[in-house]
Design goal:
Layout lengths: L18 H33 L19 H23 L5 E7 L6 H8 L1 H4 L3 E6 L1 H13 L1 H4 L6 E2 L4 E4 L3 E5 L5 H9 L7 E8 L7 H12 L4 E8 L8 H12 L6 H4 L3 H10 L4 E6 H6 L6 H10 L5 H9 L1 E7 L18 H8 L12 E6 L11 E6 L6 E6 L11 E5 L6 E3 L15 E4 L3 E5 L12 E5 L4 E4 L12 E3 L4 E4 L3 E3 L2 E2 L4 E4 L3 E4 L1 E3 L5 E2 L2 E4 L12 E6 L2 E2 L8 E7 L7 E6 L6 H4 L5 E5 L2 E5 L14 E6 L4 E5 L13 E6 L2 E6 L1 E3 L5 E3 L2 E6 L19 E6 L20 E2 L2 E2 L4 H10 L3 E3 L7 H4 L2 H8 L4 E7 L11 E7 H9 L4 E4 L13 H4 L1 H4 L9 H5 L1 E3 L2 E4 L4 E4 L4 E8 L2 E6 L20 H4 L11 E5 L4 E4 L4 E6 L4 E8 ...
Parallel strand pairs: 1-2, 1-6, 2-5, 6-7, 14-41, 25-31, 42-53, 43-44
Antiparallel strand pairs: 3-4, 4-5, 7-9, 8-9, 10-40, 11-12, 12-13, 13-41, 15-16, 16-17, 17-18, 19-20, 20-23, 21-22, 23-24, 26-29, 27-28, 28-30, 30-31, 32-33, 33-34, 34-35, 36-37, 37-40, 38-39, 44-54, 45-46, 45-47, 47-49, 48-56, 49-56, 50-55, 51-54, 51-56, 52-53, 52-55
Helix pairs in contact: 1-2, 11-15
InterPro entries: Cupin_8, JmjC_dom, Kelch-typ_b-propeller, Ppm1/Ppm2/Tcmp, SAM-dependent_MTases_sf
Protein name: tRNA wybutosine-synthesizing protein 4
EC number: 2.1.1.290, 2.3.1.231
Amino acid sequence: MPSASLPMMKPAREPETGRSAAKSKSQLQDDSIMGTNNSSIVSKRSVERLYFPDEAHFFRYFVKKPQRRSPLINRGYWVRMKAIDQVVRQFLEQDSPKQKVVVNLGCGYDPLPWQCLERYPAASNGTKFIDIDYRDLMLKKRTVVQSTNELNSMLTGAKVSENDVLFTSDQYIQLGCDLRDLQALGRVLASVIDIENCTILFTAEVSITYMNVEASDALIHWASRLTEARFCVLEQLIPDGEDHPFSRTMMAHFGKLRTVLGAVQKYPTEKAQFSRFTGLGWPKVQVCNLWKLWNSPTFATPEERTALDQVEPFDEWEEFALFGCHYFLLVADSANMATRAVASSISESQRSNNLEKSTDSTLPARSGLQPELIFSEYPKNHGYKRFAASMPVKGPDHSRDMIGVFAGMGLNTRTDSMDKYSVDEIDFQVLNPRGPAVTPSSRMCHTITDMGDTSLLVGGRTSPDNASRECWLYHKWLSTWERLDDLPWPLYRHQATRLNSEYVLVSTGRIDSRTVSTDFLVWNRRKGWVRCSSENPPRPSYGAVFFSNKIADVGDNSSSRRGFLAGGMSTSSSFLDDVWQWKLNEFNTQAPTIHFTRLPSFEDKHLVARFGANVVCIQDKFYIIGGVIKDRIMKLAEEVCVLSINSTSISVESIPLGFTPRPLLIGSTTVAFGQSLVITGGSAVCFSFGTFWNKGSYTVLLPSLEKAKSQEEVRPSEVLRLIQTVAAETPCKTTESRISTESVTLNSVPRVQIGSALEFSRMLESSTPVIIEKADIGPCTAKWTTDYLKEKIGTEREVIVHEASTEHMNFKSKNFSYVTKWFGDFLDQIQQGQMLYLRSLSAEKPSEKAADISRDFPSIAADFVLPPELAVVTENTHSSPLRISGPVNMWLHYDVMANVYCQIKGSKRLLLFPPTDVKHLGFEPGSSSSQLNVFQELHSPRLAGTHPQEALLQPGDVLFLPSLWLHAASPTSGVSIAVNVFFRNLSAGYAAGKDVYGNRDLQAYEKGRIDIAKIVKSFENLPKDVRGFYLQRLLDELRDNI
């Protein structure tokens, strides 16, 4: 085959000095780059399994252990895979007299050739698919192809060789080649195809970005000189600077992996990538970020989008938009290549000036306001919330107003606590109030509307398919919650706006992950919920910008209001950028009517039409804060804008704020406090790169709109800071109708010595706790000093530990955080009295495998043994975590599996309760943990009716803990070291699937909970008194069978 037509370039030379060191570093980086393929291929396999059940699966042959990724990662990879598939399909289907060749640059284990042969057999006929990557990786891929009949049976004329051409067939070729060596690349490619008589599509999905930018530019320029070629790139962007939180998290992730993104720093935007390719010899270039691609009606049909929502619930739209804005699809054609619109969503002739207009839109007029912005850092592990809701509340003496931020998603789980912000300069504290008061349960994506002396909480959700109908009224002067009539349907991602001191209007929102409500609702204390009749309504949406123009003053009895609706997501999961005015008539009657008028020529609608934004009214001006917009990233200068409305005009102005540090205004809450905007919370999962949290609150001090304040008038005392976190006041659940005032009797766990396995079998049968004394558990009791552990395990071994803010850890309120520490530092810190706790996880795959001391800590495992009398434990072991704790208490909980707790160093006190006490100890349905501090409440009336036992463990003691015994632990010495061995004491009935911690409830219980939910649902259409009557009878019948 002729090679003269193929342009050749010499690879860049390495400097002569330090060559061996540079080569070693280069090889290390190459290995890291190859390693990125492993994560990517597992994610694509997750998508394949879930979203393509009716297609042949090819990723399965390259992924030995499939994992189900999160919905956000699944959807992101679905878009990536579809984008590449559309480009390849269009190339295969276009007419050409020449042979078509698809070259996958940096292919990894991607099975693109087999997918095309299966999906598009006619279009793929006669096409050559060529995979190119590092030789070591391609050798592994070749082995899989050779050994897998489902792959090699689709190929004919297969041959294997040991030069750069590793595998050939009539349809498919494998090349082992370094893409930085263009001379070798050109030579090997020319040896397998006739360049002049081929039309070539190069694809590079997040591959050439790992090359240094000079090398990738050289590769792109080299390909542009081919006779008839197309180049498709999908990789990262930095659309609004490296200080954008998503960009910062993304770059830090790849930096940590030692796979620095080469091109993105030099070519950070779509415009820069357009210029890059045109400057490197490609005359026709089309480029589009993936968020814009997603919103294109020709990229995915409404039916396709709806089908995605049927597969798994999805509600991470802001995070998905951020992901999409940080990736682009680019297709470049050589002069002789017939061009068509890529994925039918990028304009066919996208000139540089058009691209600039679409991606770097001219900012709107800037407001003359010059606000002062002050950042207040959160206390450690507190204040971190997203998708909460805020409201004005009263201080303890009612003399000063505060801000309360209720519920939302915390660092680890949803919360039901309230964070309170004040201008008072007092130390932060966590309050755990007691008493009979009831609060709303944990939730997110709810609304709270200030109504003067009260605030109305509406809806919310736990998961996207578990929304709430609940409505609550918060009484500011009493600091109490009152349960109101439920909504007609569950609702979240809605908006609510106050009409006057008695009425609230609620927009459409999500009912579940597949259903959007269609009706607007008016609430009033006397009337409850009333549906509005709609005239000329917009498409149903959720997450839109929605507000009433003017809130009526007290005494205003007019029955009409006006307002705005803009943005949001449609039922088919596409972004809506329409702006509507609405007029609500007769809202104080039983027949309110809301009429909508679309504003088609609204200027700067991209600033108003948002998803997930906050709207705050101050002095008849409406401030829109955060969220995401259609098609592109929202610039820092656009994050906050002000909308001014009068009888003749509407204007929008941006308010550029010099945020330091720069926040991510996703899931944040904003509330007016006098002349200030107070922004709290906010966070986003940045695709697979990590989670970003705002580390404090922001007070935006707005100057008076009548007369600007002088700098001297902006006082530090006007800055709000987090001063309290108030835990939920939910009482412990109990079925007892009376509360005894008698003190409990505390008994000691018996201590015994055993000499045979038969004696331990009898203990198992009795199902009561026992402390086994003088058991031989190996030399660990003598050896395991902190110095010895440092030497054997290593001071720089990374461990994940609980870092507590108080001595009593509470699993429900999460008053602790999971942090990664060096093992040596951890031991030093607990010796110094820091409140840390280690419960070891699997060193290999902590989310998949249970802890095993022999596998996780092989250097010390031989020091610990179970005596032969406990052979049944050894033979049925589930896990054996190492536990090392400082002065911190483990919360009250139960384990489904029986276990033996072997105290090795230090001493520990445990309080144990029999399973029959569960009804007294605040365990909510489905939860294996209680928030009750039994050490503190031991002699209080709250534990009346319980039967506690106390175990005081010394080194060498082995505590047998039967299944389901409730227990809490507290160290009584500075440092406690133990090994906890869980074992299966039942022959069947454990939860199906993985149970890493050994505390998943039995299958029968989980099935029973589902059955109960079905029973309750079957009564939901009956009157409340009838429903209660029959459910109580069923409850009595259930009790009779206990």
